[in-house]
Amino acid sequence: MGSVYIGTSGYSYKDWEGVLYPEKTSQADYLSIYAQEFNVAELNFSYYKMPEARASEKMVEKTGERFLFSVKAHQSLTHEYSLTSLDTNCAIFIDGIRPFIDSHKLGTVLLQFPYSFHYTPDNRRYLDKLSGKLADIPLSVELRNDKWGCDAVLDGLSKRNICFVNVDEPALKGLLKKSSIVTSDIGYIRFHGRNAQNWWTGDNVSRYDYNYSDTELTEWIPSIAQIMEQTNIVLIVFNNHSKGQAVQNAKRLKELMNQSD
Prior knowledge:
The structure is a single chain. This protein is α/β, with parallel strands linked by helices. The protein has one domain (about 5-260): TIM Barrel, CATH 3.20.20.410. The protein has helices spanning about 30-35, 45-50, 55-60, 75-80, 85-95, 100, 120-135, 150-160, 195-200, 215-220, 220-230, 245-260; strands spanning about 5-10, 40-45, 70, 105-115, 140-145, 165, 165-170, 185-190, 235-240. Strands 6-5-4-3-2-1-9-8-7 form a nine-stranded parallel β-sheet.
């Protein structure tokens, strides 16, 4: 049965002071404090800036032995990709996360594709090529366009031992619905919030501005248990970071899961 790792997407938010971090905490101390509460961190900065081994090593040193990182792939691999530079970009990315790999703290690399990454032959070939370049590390794929949720894709991910990321997000046309799909020895659930009003028009703060109720969290517990039975690890990450809501919801889910044991 898989071990459960619960945390948040990103941890370096100034508005979390007073929620998770004491007021006026140095940002250099955020991760070590975060790691006292949670056992997985999903890194967002690696999407905007290629990770560097020196910085990755420092993050390894600030966390305990049973702590994992999910590292979001750089945008040059999932959003603004070019086949001509794919080999180079993959090599740079892997070099930057090497300390996570060597310390056995790499839970997975998250390939998060945008809604505009449609289910087309060209995109399927690209996903196959990219996953081949990263075949030596644990991979998870979040596909936001619901056309990707078909048997052919899931079978392909299973054959390659690539994790399909299950999501909690607004019930809007074209988006993937709640699921408990397992395609590898990793289980992954990302909670984006259900802010339908701001999903298409909001920015990276307002889009995920949502606070889950106990009822909404509790309804996931049977699915989490089902995923645990089929995997080695289950990563559960809250992306609704605005106002520290991700921290509050992650803590609360841990409490609710403990109560259900």
